[in-house]
Design a protein that fits this description.
This protein is mainly β and 341 residues long. It has a single domain (25-336), classed as Neuraminidase (6 Propeller). The protein is built from four helices and 30 strands. It has helices at 2-23, 36-39, 195-200, 246-250, and strands at 26-29, 32-33, 45-50, 56-60, 65-69, 76-80, 94-97, 103-107, 114-118, 124-129, 140-141, 144-145, 153-155, 158-161, 170-173, 179-183, 204-208, 214-218, 224-228, 234-239, 258-261, 264-267, 273-278, 284-288, 293-296, 302-310, 312-314, 318-321, 327-330, 334-336. Strands 1, 23, 24, 25, 26 and 27 form a six-stranded mixed beta sheet that branches. Strands 2-30-29-28 form a four-stranded antiparallel beta sheet, with no helix packed on it. A four-stranded antiparallel beta sheet has the order 3-4-5-6, with no helix packed on it. The longest helix has 22 residues, at 2-23.
């Protein structure tokens, strides 16, 4: 009896050790970033990125502007300003930089979805408007729109945008605006009879994997991500799970609330995910609306839970891996070493 009890207690102790290890959180502390006198220029920095030539860019959503910061991080200048005309931006939603040093800004002058590409000095290179589409529910976090053109990402010389109203999870466009292909079947939501809600639950983040293929992370509803190969074939699907998501998943409604918009009553879908990015090794980093980030390996297995610490705990609105392997995070425009912790 005593031996049996000892075995049970030992097993319980070992199980407890494994549980504690599974729940361990790596705290990454800031190793740098932009100095306060530069960060103070921005009203709401929604993206902080670096191009291979060493220049930094900050997308200031509320300021309707883009700033360029020199490689020494000593000076900043506004290179794209507010305005509806070509070469300026109004109601901006999305931003991304490319390997050739250019960048794209997605904005909405007079509710028209527009994408403009700029050179390193802020000179407009080209751009195009997306055709008017059927209404679809916007997923927002606070005042920030996360759906539609806000999801724009570079894929080599092309652009990726999530707009499920087109019948696929995301579409690849040439810089001329010509659609190359659409990738990803819409997921089953159980709300197919409610067209607007079904589309809103298929909004997400398309991301290029530098080791090959694409990831797609669903922003709202039950947290899930998918991996596709370079030809757009589905490789696997994984649920995003963890104790930090229990409250969100447990509170998912069976009947979704609505809100009144200019297009009428649309479903109110709150996001589970705020940002996502892939590092040079193919690991997927997913930042929750709670101040935690999950890291998944190339097989889709969760390998880390991370928190970012700078002037307090940071809840990322954008993640960006630099060519030298550092991780840039907004808000705050901080830099982290992702291998630490």
């Amino acid at each position: 009896m005593r031996f049996a009890l000892a075995v049970v207690l030992l097993a319980g102790a070992l199980f407890g050790m494994r549980t504690e290890a599974a729940l361990a959180v790596d705290v990454l502390r800031s190793v740098g970033g932009l100095p306060p006198h530069i960060v103070g220029l921005f009203e709401e920095p929604l993206a902080f990125q670096r191009t291979p030539d060493g220049l930094y860019y900050v997308f200031d959503r509320r300021g309707h502007s883009v700033y360029q910061i020199d490689a020494d991080r000593k000076a900043a200048r506004k290179i794209v300003e507010i305005g509806q005309e070509l070469g300026r931006i109004i109601q901006p939603r999305g931003f991304d930089t490319s390997a050739d040093g250019s960048f794209v800004v997605a904005d909405s002058p007079k509710n028209v979805d527009r994408l403009q590409m700029f050179g390193a000095g802020g000179i407009r290179l080209r751009g195009f408007n997306l055709p008017a589409r059927e209404r679809t529910a916007a997923i927002t976090f606070g005042s920030v729109v996360m759906s539609g053109i806000a999801s724009v990402r570079y894929a080599g010389p092309n652009l990726l945008i999530s707009h499920p109203e087109g019948g696929a999870l995301f579409t690849e466009y040439r810089r001329s605006g010509f659609p190359v292909r659409s990738i990803g079947r819409l997921r089953d939501t159980g709300h197919e009879q409610d067209h607007d809600l079904h589309l809103a639950l298929n909004v997400g983040f398309p991301i290029v994997d530098p080791t090959g293929g694409f990831y797609f992370v669903f922003a709202g509803g039950r947290p899930i991500f998918r991996k596709y190969d370079g030809d757009g074939r589905l490789l696997f699907e994984r649920h995003v799970e963890g104790t930090e998501l229990d409250d969100y998943v447990g509170s998912l409604p069976t009947r979704w609330p609505t809100r009144r918009t200019a297009d009428g009553e649309l479903p109110l879908v709150l996001p589970a995910i705020r940002a996502a990015a892939v590092d040079a090794t193919g690991q997927l980093w997913i930042s929750l609306t709670e101040p935690y980030t999950y890291v998944y390996d190339a097989h889709g297995d969760k390998v880390r839970t991370v928190q970012f610490s700078a002037a307090g705990i940071v809840s990322p609105t954008n993640l960006f891996f630099t060519p030298n392997g550092r991780l840039l995070v907004t808000p705050g425009c901080y830099e982290f070493d992702p291998t630490a912790g």
